Task: structure prediction
Amino acid sequence: MVPQLEIEGSIYREFQIDINETTGGSYLSLDRFQVWLTNDAELTGYVEATHTFAAGTAIKVYDLDSEATDNAIIMDYNVNDGSGKRDYRVLVPDALFDDSYLYIVLYTEHGLTQIERHNAPGVYDGESDDGFEEWGVRKLATKSGYKFNDLDVDGVWDAGEPGLAGWTIFVDYNNNNVLDKVDALGAPYEPFAVTNENGFYKIYGIIPGTWNVREIMQTDWIQTFPGAPNYYHREVFCDSKDKTGATYRLENNNFGNSRGLGCLEITKEWVFPDGLNDLFPEFVYKTSVSVHVTGPNGYSETWILEPEDWSEMRCDLVPGLYTIDEVTVPGYSTTYPLGKSATVVPGDEAQKVTIEIENTLDTGCLE
Result:
């Protein structure tokens, strides 16, 4: 598996080279660089004259040269960080690859282009003069999943709950709960991804190890999954070369968020004509009142407003639009419009909504 990296929104496959040159001849040319895909584990038969494999054995997805141009890249040995270390890396667009093929084959040629030595005018080098040039790939892993809007705040991605776009998910190598995009030297450090319109994210280029994967919280949201006490996924990332490793390519690692629960207070207010409130207080004050409340996600409950204050407040409601209908008390008429509505917003008691429902005592006849 050739590791994938994301750079400024584009995905690349990364190949690395450790060049072997003498300090006197510090330059080395890269004259041919081809990437092939095949299902043949023992692919042979490269034709030097045409720079191709036999038809039907492999497909070429990248070539440093074009049909009209013979290109070369000059590499400087002075960047060498020691034997076995990466000196240069070549990034090939990921879109060129077809993962239905089992194998990626790299074909390279070096040392065909001469260049004047920077410390010795008139002296040319560029050929390979100190052993085999070592190509390889880093041992990296990937992680993917979704960010969803947990509308009912239960920590479960239920049917009908949409994905959330524009959220950043990152691998927290140093576990400081902060995305460090670069290290002290300015080199890329902690890998991350931003969720798309469906809430999907995929993080490339994760170094093997045990890391915490977090999200960057946004204002006015709470995280419901993963939940307390840690609010992160702790994962063991293995070698990307090991295709049998269960955690080489971690998938379905989701994050859930919600605007939080809100409060709704319903208050019953009795209104009688011509001062009848004062004439029949005992009768009125012993009467319980029922109201039917409907809201988001199929919410449908009957609340009982007791005669102590004919009021009830609940703070475990999913934010959204609620409709309140009074269950009419025998002998009374509802004078407040039926179907009174209120919008519950996330928050505590300070954000409660109060609904007043008024009634009048029905009049009768006496002969």
